[in-house]
Design a protein that fits this description.
about 130 residues; mainly alpha; 4 helices; transmembrane helix
């Protein structure tokens, strides 16, 4: 791996960590429910991006390779080549599931924020008098 690739991968990880920290700050410190909702959405997107980054595997090809063999590999080197070119599908499946669940949770939270605004007349949690 060259220095440029190492720098780019490191900068991606650092930016994901900073993005996650900023979104957590927004969730815990902002009084507006709309700002909390936006920060929570950014947080979930950052975690999904991090999961995709974990599942990344660098290969020599620039195009996505389909690991299909019509015959059984004969020796250990062919098996090793097949396994090294395949991508782990688990992070992709988990991210897809997290996106769908996150969308449902976001719609539920938007409904709760609308009801909160109709009942209290504000989305600022510090101005609510019980």
């Amino acid at each position: 791996m060259s220095n440029v690739e190492s720098f780019l991968l490191t900068s991606i990880v650092i930016s994901l960590i900073i993005n996650t920290a900023i979104s957590l700050y927004g969730v815990f410190s902002k009084p507006s429910l709309i700002k909390k909702f936006i920060a929570l959405t950014i947080f979930s997107d950052s975690i999904n991006s991090f999961a995709i980054f974990i599942g990344f595997r660098r290969t020599s090809e620039a195009y996505p390779s389909i690991a299909v063999h019509h015959e059984i590999p004969r020796n250990v080197t062919e098996i090793h080549q097949f396994v090294s070119s395949a991508v782990d599908p688990l992070p992709q499946a988990l991210v897809l599931t997290a996106i769908v669940i996150g969308l449902a949770v976001n719609m539920f939270l938007i409904g709760l924020i609308i009801l909160f605004y109709k009942y209290y007349g504000t989305t600022n949690v510090r101005k609510v008098r019980i």
